[in-house]
Amino acid sequence: MSADKPNIVVLISGSGTNLQAIIDYVANGAIPANIAAVISNIPNVKGLERAQKAGITTSVISHKEFASRDQFDAELTLKIDSFNPDLVILAGFMRILGDDFVNHYQGKMLNIHPSLLPKFTGLHTHKRALEAGETNHGTSVHFVTSELDGGPVIIQATVTVLPDDSEESLAQRVLVQEHRIYPLVTKWFIEGRLKFDIAGNQITYDGSKLESIIKIDADTPVGKMLDWLPKLKT
Ligand code: GRF
To answer: Ligand 1 pocket, 14 CB below 6 A?
Structure first.
């Protein structure tokens, strides 16, 4: 652990491709942080392997070993806090977290959700988007509040739904966008530019209110997003 950089703790439950994207940005210096730990509620998942390969401390806290959600949350909190996190990232973490847990990390916990929120909160978002005949679908990064998938959204990436899309093909294109926007938001947060002003219930960027959700599409180059964000300053 390096003392001079902010600490990130990442929570996962599965394949960890978003985790990998963040690992890569940290490794190449774009995110000036230390991934202090990766914690999974499911043993033996691919995301744990990715973390170990990158030399990151891992931990498994199986929800199945706890009689209640509160007990699981309490143990998870202890573990996370032992790493002194400046930011907690939910990256495919498939557990609903209790209010105490969420409030404890309010303003410093991010989630990525595979839909254009507020559409399709919860599970099976790609299937539901197809069934609803959506022409656009995508992904959202938001601060976590006690409302499920309901905290303030920072950025959304849109993908066009193609006539012959399957759940898998759509999910795959959404994932590509997730790997672009999640590291970016992480970077903005770690650099201290992006904040959730809880009292004012607003997101600020360089101290100014983010007036609307940042929206990009599959063709928007990441470099352009980096150039463009400062223009949000009012
Ligand atoms: C992503 O689609 C994310 O939006 C959702 O779960 C999936 C996780 O994928 N919350 P991965 O584990 O990062 O590959």
So the answer is: yes
Which string of DSSP letters, residue by residue, matches 6-28?
-EEEEEESS--HHHHHHHHHHHT
In a domain, 86, yes or no: yes
Closest-lying ligand 1 atom to the alpha carbon of residue 18:
13
Å from CA of 185 to ligand 1 middle = 15
Q: What is the pLDDT of residues 79-91, one digit of tens each?
A: 999 999 999 999 9
Residue of the nearest CA to atom 3 in ligand 1? Answer: 92
**Measured between alpha carbons, how far is 143 from 223 in angstroms, rounded to an integer?**
23
Residues in the chain: 234
Cβ neighbours, 10 Å, residue 189? 25
Residue 1 lies in a domain: no
Q: Structure pTM?
A: 0.94
- Which residue type sits at 131? E
Contact between residue 62 and residue 42 where contact means Cβ atoms under 8 Å apart: yes
Separation between Cα atoms, residue 104 and residue 133, nearest integer Å: 39
Range of the domain at 89: 7-232
Q: What is the CATH number of the domain that holds 112?
A: 3.40.50.170
Pick the atom of ligand 1 nearest to 13's CA: 12
The CA–CA distances, whole Å, from 231 to 192, 214, 227, 228 equal: 17, 12, 8, 6
pLDDT digits (tens, 9 = 90+) for 170-225: 999 999 999 999 999 999 999 999 999 988 889 999 899 999 999 998 888 776 66
